[in-house]
Structure formats: C-alpha cells, structure tokens
Specification:
single chain; mainly alpha; globular
Length: 133
C-alpha cells in the first residue's frame, strides 16, 4: 500500500507503538516490585534499592506512558534509566548487546527517546488535554 493511506495511519501507529511498548515496559517493573509475572518463585526486590527504584520507574513510568500522560518528560526520564541500566549492568559484560543481554535496555532507551522527541501520538491523554485547551 502506498499513497495517502499509510501516511494517515502513521500517527495512530505511533500511539499503538507507545501503548504496546509501555505495557511491556511496565511488566518489567511489576515483576521487579511484586515478583509476578514469573515462571517460578521470585521474591520482590527491596523498594529502597537500585533495582527497587528501577521497578518504581518502570511500573509508574510505564503506566503513564501507557495512557499517554506527561509522555515527553516521562519518556525522557525512563530513557535515561535504561541508559544507566545498560551501562551499569550490561556493558561491563561485553561490548555487544546480543552477548551481554542488553538488547531490551537499548531498545527501550531509544524507543523512549523517540517518544520524548515525537510525543505520544493522537490516542493519548496528552493529546486529549491539548485538544481541550
């Protein structure tokens, strides 16, 4: 399909991308904080730890991004969190993300940087709020 159909869908697909990635991102935080979902017994992390802080950022930041509220600043914040996670936890294990298991952190970082710059798309509370003003 080419022509005017695909460009008309681009903003809506931007919103769909934000919603799907935010859901996946928030589940990482929920897993850290509450130990679920999990394939086996997993204890939640201490809230006042580095991983606990990451869990809070991922759970609440992911939830805000899911509904598209305060998208640009929250996306910028969690992109930074993912960069820190990559360089603290994954990069010391080696250069290649495929080998140091840092691919999710890199992808989340750059996807959130995109949303920090591009905004949430039309299906968001930010867009609803902007239209109401």
């Amino acid at each position: 399909m080419t022509g005017p159909i695909l460009p008309r869908w681009a903003p809506h697909l931007q919103s769909v991308l934000r919603i799907v990635v935010a859901f996946l991102f928030a589940t990482h935080g929920v897993q850290k904080l509450f130990g679920v979902p999990s394939t086996g017994p997993r204890a939640p992390v201490p809230l006042l730890s580095l991983v606990g802080t990451a869990g809070v950022l991922e759970t609440f930041g992911g939830s805000l991004l899911l509904i598209g509220l305060l998208t640009r600043p929250v996306a910028f914040l969690v992109a930074g969190e993912m960069a820190v996670a990559y360089f603290m936890r994954h990069a010391p294990r080696g250069f290649w993300p495929i080998l140091n298991q840092g691919e999710p952190a890199v992808l989340f970082c750059f996807i959130w940087l995109y949303f920090a710059a591009a905004g949430p798309g039309p299906w968001s509370l930010d867009a609803l709020w902007r239209r109401a003003r």
